C-alpha cells in the first residue's frame, strides 16, 4: 500500500508546469529586475522549514492532548493529511490558472505568448506553499512508514523502496502527460500543454489531478482503517 501510495503522490505533485506558468507572468520585483520563474520553487523548501517547527512545537502537543499518542497523530494519519493538502494544492493551482487565462483573454494576449501577462507571479505562491506543507506530512510520513513498518533486518531495503518512489513516480508522470498531450492535441487542436500556454489548458490538467488526488485519498482512508501496525508502540 505504501509504495503505490507514494508513487501516486509523486505523480500528483509535479511542479514543472508551475514554472512554465510563472514564466508568462509579471515577475518584476523593482524596476529593471525580474526574478527567475524557477526560483519560486525555493518557496516549497522555505515552507517546509517554517512548517516543521510549527508542526513539532504546536500541532503535536495539541493533538497529543486529544489522541493520547506520543506522536500526536499516527503516521498513516500524517500521510492522509499530506494527501489532503496535495489535493488542495491542485485545486488552488487550477483556480489560479483559470485567472491567468482570463487575464490573457481580457488583455487580448492569447496569441501573443511572448508578451508578459499583467498578472503578478505571486499569485502562484499559495500553490507552492501548499505543496511544501503536503511534503511535510506525506513524504515524512512515508519515510517513517517504510523505515518503521518493515522487519528490523530489512530497514535498509525499506528506505531504498522509499527513495525509488520518486524515480518511478517521475516516469509515470511523464507518461501520463504524454498520453494527455496525444489525446487532446489530435486533429491539429491545441493540446492541454501547447507551447503557447495562453491557448493551453493547464487548468483542466490541474482539475484532473485534483480529482485523482481525491479518489486516491478516499481509497487510502478506506484501506488505512484496516491497517494493523507491526509495532503498536509506533502509533
Automatic annotation (TrEMBL):
The keyword Transmembrane helix applies. Pfam families: PTR2. It is a multi-pass membrane protein. GO terms for cellular component: membrane. It comes from the Eukaryota. Keywords: Membrane, Transmembrane, Transmembrane helix. The chain crosses the membrane at residues 35-55, 76-96, 159-180, 204-223. The keyword DNA-binding does not apply. InterPro entries: MFS_trans_sf, POT_fam. It is found in: Membrane. GO terms for molecular function: transmembrane transporter activity. Belongs to the major facilitator superfamily. Proton-dependent oligopeptide transporter (POT/PTR) (TC 2.A.17) family. This is Protein NRT1/ PTR FAMILY 5.10-like. The lineage of its organism: Eukaryota, Viridiplantae, Streptophyta, Embryophyta, Tracheophyta.
